[in-house]
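Design review, sub-item: ligand-bound model
Attendees: FS, YL, KQ
YL presented the inputs for the calcium ion complex:
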Amino acid sequence: MARKLSPEEIQVFKDLFDSYDPDKDGSITVEEFAKVMSSAPGKQPTQAEVEQIIKEVDLDGDGTINFNEFITMMTGLPYPPKDEEDAEYSKAWKEYEPSLNGSITASQFRQLMNGLGDPVTDVEVEQLLNNVDGEGKLSYKDYVHFMKNRNIEDDIVSGYQ
Ligand SMILES: [Ca+2]
Ligand SMILES: [Ca+2]
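KQ shared the predicted structure:
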Protein backbone atom coordinates (compact mmCIF):
# COMPACT_ATOMS: atom_id res chain seq x y z
CA MET A 1 0.00 0.00 0.00
CA ALA A 2 1.19 3.49 -0.80
CA ARG A 3 2.74 5.29 2.11
CA LYS A 4 1.02 8.52 3.03
CA LEU A 5 3.07 11.69 2.86
CA SER A 6 3.63 13.43 6.16
CA PRO A 7 2.65 17.10 6.56
CA GLU A 8 6.38 17.93 6.62
CA GLU A 9 6.95 16.18 3.31
CA ILE A 10 3.98 17.93 1.79
CA GLN A 11 5.41 21.25 3.00
CA VAL A 12 8.72 20.47 1.28
CA PHE A 13 6.86 19.78 -1.95
CA LYS A 14 4.82 22.92 -1.46
CA ASP A 15 7.96 25.06 -1.13
CA LEU A 16 9.42 23.43 -4.19
CA PHE A 17 6.17 23.87 -6.07
CA ASP A 18 6.10 27.57 -5.15
CA SER A 19 9.58 27.99 -6.61
CA TYR A 20 8.21 26.67 -9.91
CA ASP A 21 5.12 28.83 -9.63
CA PRO A 22 6.37 32.41 -9.14
CA ASP A 23 2.98 34.04 -9.72
CA LYS A 24 1.49 31.72 -7.03
CA ASP A 25 -1.69 30.98 -8.92
CA GLY A 26 -1.49 27.32 -7.99
CA SER A 27 -0.45 25.98 -11.35
CA ILE A 28 2.80 25.70 -13.24
CA THR A 29 2.52 26.72 -16.87
CA VAL A 30 4.81 25.63 -19.68
CA GLU A 31 6.50 29.05 -19.49
CA GLU A 32 7.03 28.85 -15.75
CA PHE A 33 8.39 25.34 -15.98
CA ALA A 34 10.71 26.29 -18.83
CA LYS A 35 12.07 29.17 -16.77
CA VAL A 36 13.05 26.87 -13.89
CA MET A 37 14.56 24.36 -16.28
CA SER A 38 16.60 27.03 -18.02
CA SER A 39 18.02 28.36 -14.74
CA ALA A 40 19.20 24.88 -13.78
CA PRO A 41 22.69 23.78 -14.81
CA GLY A 42 23.15 21.42 -17.71
CA LYS A 43 21.52 21.08 -21.06
CA GLN A 44 18.66 23.46 -21.71
CA PRO A 45 15.45 21.76 -22.73
CA THR A 46 13.64 23.02 -25.78
CA GLN A 47 10.11 24.37 -25.60
CA ALA A 48 8.90 21.13 -27.17
CA GLU A 49 10.66 19.08 -24.49
CA VAL A 50 9.10 21.13 -21.72
CA GLU A 51 5.70 20.77 -23.33
CA GLN A 52 6.27 17.03 -23.50
CA ILE A 53 7.12 16.88 -19.79
CA ILE A 54 4.05 18.91 -18.87
CA LYS A 55 1.90 16.68 -21.03
CA GLU A 56 3.08 13.57 -19.20
CA VAL A 57 2.48 15.11 -15.80
CA ASP A 58 -0.74 16.92 -16.64
CA LEU A 59 -3.26 14.35 -15.47
CA ASP A 60 -6.36 16.51 -15.77
CA GLY A 61 -5.33 17.81 -19.18
CA ASP A 62 -5.65 21.55 -18.49
CA GLY A 63 -2.17 22.26 -19.88
CA THR A 64 -0.58 23.21 -16.56
CA ILE A 65 0.72 21.35 -13.49
CA ASN A 66 -1.27 21.82 -10.31
CA PHE A 67 0.00 20.87 -6.87
CA ASN A 68 -1.47 17.36 -6.87
CA GLU A 69 0.01 16.65 -10.28
CA PHE A 70 3.33 18.04 -9.09
CA ILE A 71 3.45 15.67 -6.11
CA THR A 72 2.43 12.78 -8.34
CA MET A 73 5.33 13.65 -10.63
CA MET A 74 7.83 13.95 -7.78
CA THR A 75 6.82 10.77 -5.96
CA GLY A 76 5.69 8.67 -8.90
CA LEU A 77 2.55 7.84 -6.91
CA PRO A 78 -0.97 9.16 -7.37
CA TYR A 79 -1.69 12.11 -5.13
CA PRO A 80 -3.95 12.46 -3.28
CA PRO A 81 -3.74 8.71 -2.72
CA LYS A 82 -6.80 6.94 -4.01
CA ASP A 83 -8.64 4.72 -1.63
CA GLU A 84 -8.89 1.65 -3.82
CA GLU A 85 -11.62 0.11 -1.72
CA ASP A 86 -13.78 3.19 -1.99
CA ALA A 87 -13.25 3.29 -5.72
CA GLU A 88 -14.42 -0.29 -6.02
CA TYR A 89 -17.48 0.37 -3.84
CA SER A 90 -18.53 3.45 -5.75
CA LYS A 91 -18.02 1.78 -9.12
CA ALA A 92 -20.32 -1.07 -8.15
CA TRP A 93 -22.88 1.33 -6.70
CA LYS A 94 -22.95 3.54 -9.76
CA GLU A 95 -24.19 0.69 -11.89
CA TYR A 96 -27.44 0.93 -9.93
CA GLU A 97 -27.51 4.55 -8.86
CA PRO A 98 -25.12 6.81 -10.79
CA SER A 99 -25.41 9.97 -8.69
CA LEU A 100 -24.33 8.44 -5.35
CA ASN A 101 -26.95 10.70 -3.80
CA GLY A 102 -29.99 8.49 -4.14
CA SER A 103 -30.74 5.07 -2.79
CA ILE A 104 -31.17 1.51 -4.01
CA THR A 105 -33.59 -1.22 -3.08
CA ALA A 106 -32.83 -4.41 -1.21
CA SER A 107 -32.94 -6.47 -4.39
CA GLN A 108 -30.58 -4.07 -6.18
CA PHE A 109 -28.28 -4.28 -3.22
CA ARG A 110 -28.30 -8.07 -3.45
CA GLN A 111 -27.44 -7.91 -7.15
CA LEU A 112 -24.70 -5.41 -6.44
CA MET A 113 -23.14 -7.66 -3.83
CA ASN A 114 -23.38 -10.66 -6.13
CA GLY A 115 -21.64 -8.57 -8.77
CA LEU A 116 -18.82 -7.90 -6.34
CA GLY A 117 -18.55 -11.65 -5.78
CA ASP A 118 -19.51 -11.03 -2.17
CA PRO A 119 -23.12 -12.21 -1.76
CA VAL A 120 -25.10 -11.14 1.29
CA THR A 121 -27.45 -13.30 3.32
CA ASP A 122 -31.13 -12.48 3.86
CA VAL A 123 -30.35 -11.81 7.49
CA GLU A 124 -27.70 -9.27 6.59
CA VAL A 125 -29.99 -7.44 4.19
CA GLU A 126 -32.77 -7.44 6.74
CA GLN A 127 -30.55 -6.14 9.53
CA LEU A 128 -29.08 -3.53 7.32
CA LEU A 129 -32.41 -2.18 6.12
CA ASN A 130 -33.84 -2.25 9.63
CA ASN A 131 -30.96 -0.13 10.79
CA VAL A 132 -31.48 2.36 8.03
CA ASP A 133 -34.54 4.45 7.26
CA GLY A 134 -37.35 1.95 7.47
CA GLU A 135 -38.32 2.57 3.84
CA GLY A 136 -36.47 -0.49 2.60
CA LYS A 137 -33.91 1.57 0.76
CA LEU A 138 -30.23 2.03 1.15
CA SER A 139 -28.16 5.18 0.66
CA TYR A 140 -24.60 5.17 -0.61
CA LYS A 141 -23.35 6.19 2.82
CA ASP A 142 -25.13 3.28 4.48
CA TYR A 143 -23.72 0.94 1.90
CA VAL A 144 -20.09 2.09 2.35
CA HIS A 145 -20.53 1.92 6.10
CA PHE A 146 -21.80 -1.61 5.77
CA MET A 147 -18.93 -2.64 3.49
CA LYS A 148 -16.30 -1.24 5.80
CA ASN A 149 -17.74 -2.86 8.90
CA ARG A 150 -18.17 -6.11 7.06
CA ASN A 151 -14.55 -6.16 5.97
CA ILE A 152 -13.38 -5.40 9.48
CA GLU A 153 -15.37 -8.40 10.74
CA ASP A 154 -13.90 -10.55 7.97
CA ASP A 155 -10.43 -9.45 8.98
CA ILE A 156 -11.06 -10.28 12.60
CA VAL A 157 -12.40 -13.70 11.70
CA SER A 158 -9.56 -14.52 9.32
CA GLY A 159 -7.11 -13.36 11.97
CA TYR A 160 -8.14 -16.36 14.07
CA GLN A 161 -7.84 -18.90 11.32
CA1 LIG B 1 1.65 29.90 -12.19
CA1 LIG C 1 -3.18 19.93 -14.92
